[in-house]
Every structure is written in C-alpha cells, then in structure tokens.
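Usage

Read records sequentially. Each one opens with the input sequence:
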Amino acid sequence: MRGDSRAAAVILSGVLLSMASATPGGGQEAPADFILVGKVQVAGAAAWTDSGLNVLKGQEYYFQAEGTVSLQKDNPIASCGPEGLAMRTLQQPLLDQNLGALICKVREKIEFVEANRGGEKIERDIGEMFFIGKENRVVFPAAGRLLFRVNENLTDDNDGAFDVKIYLKHEAK
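and closes with the structure output:
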C-alpha cells in the first residue's frame, strides 16, 4: 500500500508541475472555446490604452494579464499586479474595485462638451467600465472600442505595465 501511495504522490506532483508550466509564467490556459485575438501592453502611467479592437454587443471575451505597476514611482509598497492594491480611494474610475487594478472600457462614443464660456471644448468618452484583474470573462452589453487602464485617475507618477492577452469566444457553427 505504501508503495502505491508514493507512486500516486509522484504522479500527482508531475501532473501539478506540468499544469503550472503549461503557459509562460505559469499562467492559466485560456478556455478551449476562446481564441486569441490580441495582445496589448497597458502602461501604468497611461490614461486609456487603445487595444485596437472593436467589440460587438453580446460578444464574450476572456482576458489574462500579468506584470507589475507602481502607483508611485520608487515606492516599493505602491507596486501591484493586475489585481491592484487592497484599498479604495475617490481617485479611481471604478470605486468598488482595488486601486491600481486592470480595468477596461468599451467606448461607445466620444462627446464634445463646452468647458467654459470661452467656447473651449473638452472630449468625454461615453462607455461602461469593467474590472479585469489577473483574468476575467466579460460579455459586453454594447458595441464600441476596447480600451484598458489601471484603476486610478492620478497616473502621472505611475510606472510599469500590464501585458494583456485578449481572447474572443469562438462561435459554434
């Protein structure tokens, strides 16, 4: 009996090791019914990063992200992965998600509004935002351009980047 349980433990260890090394960095494999449609690097200091993809209403996407951003350059305790830091502020786009987490938005349209009596116009993106983190699935409720950023409005002192893989659910024929 002892020999059998040792053999089972060795086999199980091998299976777990091969699963951990299935993708670079030990990340998860994408679900079988999704195909890779894009990759984008999201700089921590960027406002919104354009993925180059237009999504359609009802399409399901799967995202995987890795990397590190610093929410304050040269401050080691301000670094985080795509899940963000376990804190919330009023200076972030999604108030109910971690500060610095990876988020996305589907920009449905751009609106120009008058900023003051001088006639100066400012640009405003219209669209819904979604939490992505390290990995997530999203079914988009509207069509538009897919954009990414960190969940923080004050990005001038940020550093680092997240690398994001974008997968689209393959439609069965």
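Summary fields computed downstream for this record:
- The domain at 31-169 is CATH 2.60.120.430 (Jelly Rolls).
- The longest helix spans residues 2-20.
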